[in-house]
Amino acid sequence: MKEAGFDSMTIMQDHYLINRREDFDRYFYDFVPAWLPWLVRRGLGACLALAFVLRRCRVLHMSFQGFALDNTCFWRLESAMLKLAGVKVVAMPFGGDAYKYSEVIDTSLRHVLLDSYPNFGRVERHIANRVAFWTERADIVIAGIMVDGLGRWDVVMNQIFQINCRMWSAKQSYSTNDGVNGPVKVLHTPNHRAFKGTEFLMHAVEQLQAEGLRVELYLLEKVPNEQVRQTMQEVDILAEQFIATGYAFNGIEGMASGLPVLANLEHEA
Questions:
Q1: Number of C-beta neighbours around residue 80 at 10 A
Q2: CB 155 within 8 A of CB 108
Q3: pLDDT one-digit tens code per residue, 126-169
Q4: Between 20 and 30 A from 124 (CA), which of 35, 139, 174, 226?
Q5: Are 32 and 41 in contact (CB under 8 A)?
Q6: pLDDT tops 80 at residue 269
Q7: Which residues are CB-contacts of 266 (< 8 A; sequence separation ≥ 6)?
Q8: Do residues 257 and 233 touch, judged by C-beta distance below 8 A?
Q9: The overall pTM is greater than 0.85
C-alpha cells in the first residue's frame, strides 16, 4: 500500500518466529513506556493502539478476531467506536479466526485442521460469534479461498496474501538434472506437517527413490524466512501444500523465486 502511495502502517500484537521484529512497523507495547510491567504494556498498549487508529486512520484492515479488544469482554465496542470515528473496516480471514470446523466443506481439510490446530475445534462458538458480528458490520469482506462458513464476500480474488517482491529474486541458473544424470532438489517448508500434507510428499519422494531416481527433499521447519529465501535459490522445485485448496505465502515466494510450485488446486467446491 505504501508503494501505491498510501500512508500505511502495520500494527501488530506479536510476530511469528519465522519473522523479524522489524518486519512490521509498530507493536501494541510500543505505545507505552518500556519500564512498565510486561502485562501492563500489553493491555494498556492495546487500548492506546486502538485510540491511535481511531484518531489517525481512515481504513483498518484486520482479521475476524477484531483489532485490539478481542481478548476482552468489550470486543463488540470496537465496531461502534470505529464507525463513530469514520474508520472503514476491511475484514480478511487468515484461518484460525474464521474457520468453523463443522462448516468446512472438505473433510480432509477439516481433519488436518483438527490435527494441526486442535484448540480451534473447541472454541467454535467463540469464532462463530466474531465471524457473524464482523460479517454483518465490516464495510468490505475479502475472503480469498477461505470461503467455508462465510456468508458474504465483496471482492472476488483467488488469494489475499501479499509479499514484498523486491525481497525475492528469480533464480539466475537452473539445474539440468532429471533424477538420472543428477539429483532433483525439492524444497518443502511446512508450518504444520499435517495441514501441508507433508507425509504424502515424503512418501512420494521415498517411492521415487525406491525406483532408482535421485530426489533430495529439503525440509525446512521453524527457520527464519531469510533461510527459506536463500534455499529457494539452490533447489529445483517447491512443494508447497497438498490438502487445503490453493496456495499461500510460501507458494508466492516460490513463484517470485522462479521455481515451479506444486500445490493443490483441484477441489471441486
A1: 10
A2: no
A3: 999 999 999 999 999 999 888 899 999 999 888 888 888 888 99
A4: 139
A5: yes
A6: no
A7: 245
A8: yes
A9: yes
> Among residues 171, 164, 199, 166, which one has the least CA distance to residue 185?
171
Measured distance CA(100)–CA(131) in Å, rounded: 9
DSSP code of 57? -
**Alpha carbon distances (Å) from 56 to 26, 53, 86, 263:** 14, 5, 10, 40
Of residues 42 and 170, more confidence is placed in 170
Write the burial class of residue 53 (CB in 10 Å: 0-12 exposed, 13-18 middle, 19+ buried).
buried
Decide: residue 82, CB within 10 A, 0-12 exposed, 13-18 middle, 19+ buried. buried
Q: What angle do CA 162, 168, 170 make, to 5 degrees?
A: 120
Which of 122, 61, 68, 76 lies closest to 96 in space, CA to CA?
A: 122
List the chain domain ranges.
11-141, 165-263
pLDDT tens, position by position, 159-173: 888 888 888 999 999
Q: Which fold has domain 165-263?
A: Rossmann fold (3.40.50)
Length of the chain: 269
Cα-to-chain-centroid distance, residue 161: 7
Identify the three-state secondary structure at position 127.
helix
